[in-house]
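Incident log entry.

Two folding requests arrived from the same account within the same minute. Monitoring flagged them as a possible duplicate submission, but the sequences differ. Recording both here for audit purposes.

Request one:
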Amino acid sequence: MFPKVSRNVVIVASVLLFHGAALWLLQTGLLRRAVEVLVPVQLLSEFIEPPKPKEAPPPPPVLPKAVTPPAIAKATTLPPPPIPLAIADPTPAPNAPVGVVAPPKALPPITAPVATNPAPVAAVKVELPSSDADYLQNPKPAYPAMSKRLGEQGKVVVRVLIGVDGTAQKAEIRQSSGFDRLDQAALSTTQRWRYVPGKRGGVAEAMWFNVPINFVLE
């Protein structure tokens, strides 16, 4: 009877036997032929073909260096030739005329024209208004009865603006007699009177005129 063999020993021996047979078939080329029959040629070549090495990126292009133009030598400027200086010769020329130069004659002074006084302008004649012309027939101011009984009397000066038509435009008391009744009587009388208008250069013109009124008890 054969001795009992362990199960692990059998497994290890089988694996070794399998690997040895595969190695022998690979060396003899039988394994490749069997694979070519079972697997297409294209897959086999892809399977067996080793991976291609990675291509290195191309180096960056080298730019040409800028060529600097050669420096142009500056033209050297020569200093201008010296200007000959004139030397005064005190000896006169043989043909030079000899004589005395007379000084120029002084011109007479220019006198400014004397301005003559212009002819005086004739003054414009002014004629003041009037209230005592005979043809005006102005009545005398009425003496207030109450002023007579009280003995009121005095002089009133009324300032009247006389128009070009001879009528009183405005009237105001310039000088009071000291009594209001006499002042009002003189004011109302001068406003009703007719006047000779004032004239300037023969032309009638509105003017202010002072009219005196005397209140005297007889």
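Request two (distinct sequence, not a duplicate):
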Amino acid sequence: MFSVKEMLSRFADVFNKNPNSNIGKLIGILHGQMNDLNSTLVKVQEWRSIDEAQGTTLDRIGQNVIQPRGAATDEVYRVLLKSKIARNLSKTDVNTIIRVLSLALDSHHSDIRIQEKFIDPSDPEPAALSLIRVPIKRLNEVGLSPMQFGQIIQKTVAAGVRVAQIELAGTFRLSSVYDQLQQDAFGLADPDMTTGGSLGTVYVPGNDYGLPI
């Protein structure tokens, strides 16, 4: 974007190019308007991305892919939009499900692990899946509950396939040194709760109120 000085430099030398002159003040007003217009155009360009768009702009993206918002926040709605777009292209195999979920959560595919229940040695079940590892930290960051995430997974798998269990993995680990406390990104937290690992949980999908998917 040009500065006021650069814009005045384009005038012939017969004009007073001092920014405080009348013509300089007029160009200053024009420069401010052009700056505002440029900022708007940049925002329009950026908000074409689901990650950057907000509010009603996200709603319009949702209309394009037929994904209503419901009561979801912008952060949760972004997950819904990404997963809906990916589900539209899904082949429903395990690798595709992992790709859909990693795309929706903006996490690495290695953070998600799926096991088919028919090979479960203790409780085999045909046409069922167990997600034995999902990054709970990422769910917390976007404000997505385990129940809502379970809905997304159930919509991603093939018709007739049940999501039996979701294991939400935390980062907490015991000390690697015997009889010694460790406070870091994996152990117990400090008094200010600024460090330490996160606990995990196991979620079994039920009949709770869900998202509009």
